[in-house]
Write a structure and sequence with these properties.
about 0% strand, single chain, mainly alpha
Amino acid sequence: MDAPMLAREGSYEGESLSNVETVHALHVLHVALDKLGLVGATRVDPQLQAAALAQSVGEEITQMLAGQKKLEDQYVALVAEQPQLRNLPNKNKLYENQKAVHTTAEQLRLGTQALVRNLKASPGVSENMAKVAVQRQALQQLLHHCTAQLLASQTCPVLAEYVEGVEKHDLETQATIERERITSAAVKQLKAEIKDEKSKHEEQMRRAGQALAELNGQQKAVALGGSSKARYREAQVGAANECARRLESNSLSEVQDQIAVLQQQLEIDHQVQEAGSAYSEKVQAWLREETIEWGSRIDADVAAKEKDTEAVKQERQRDLIKLKDMKEKHEKETSLKAERDSTAKDAADREAADQVHSCHMHHLCHVLMWHYRPDTPETLKVPPSPSSRCCVRMPCSI
């Protein structure tokens, strides 16, 4: 049972359902929720879905392209017949040919528009599945709300609001379709006016041809009389006819060139779409490969860097231990050297003091001996210098 049917069991104004209707509605809602849950839990291979969707869309597009090709061949054949039909005295076949050309061109345009709409309305498998999943979740939430409201108050205002929204959307869609219908009618009216103008122009050209034929007859009659005015008139009418014919041929050639350009554009668009899809597939495959490769490289680099970091940490720990040992050795050697230097300095100081004391003692002995010798004159009793070498070497004999 769909949402509008459930809404019609109650009322848009929020009237309460009877107990039987409530139980029936709850049963229907539980069945629908179970089915939606089963559909949501079902997993289908995306490749199979992509293959099925591509096959269906491809068959439809192939049929449309075959129809377009048939119409193009028909259009080319009709355009190729026009030069021969213009040379015929009976112009009815030419008019019929022109009508057929116009009809075929309109069918080609409509077919191209239908093909474009079909291509735009055919999303990818991932987008389509995501859209279906979102719609399924929204429907499940709506049914859960309806179940809760039916159990609480035997009414379902949220479903009524949803139905009103759907009806409003339908009204907007109908209004849009009506506007498009009015626009299409205006386009058809304009085409009919263009067709009437074209038929009027062709009628004028036919009358001009008849007038030209009459003038040709008059010219022949006047030519028999040898009138120069008739020859001038003939030349003028012939020039006007030639000008009109050239204008028509130029217009036809321009239309043919436009048709050729449109055909080339269609072919180019088709080739671009094929090339774009192939390139997209290649790029996606390359990106997947690059992602896998760079992921493995990153893991390997991270492992190598962690190993190197651990080795550096161990080396740093060993260096810290060595540095600590070297500092202890250096401090020990420094203390030992300081002790040795202090001991050597003390010994040198004691030796220097002993030498000075010995020198002073020898000098004192020498002075005493010099003064107290009886054979020494008074004038010669001058004490020698303490720095004299004899003072150091002379022993004291006192």
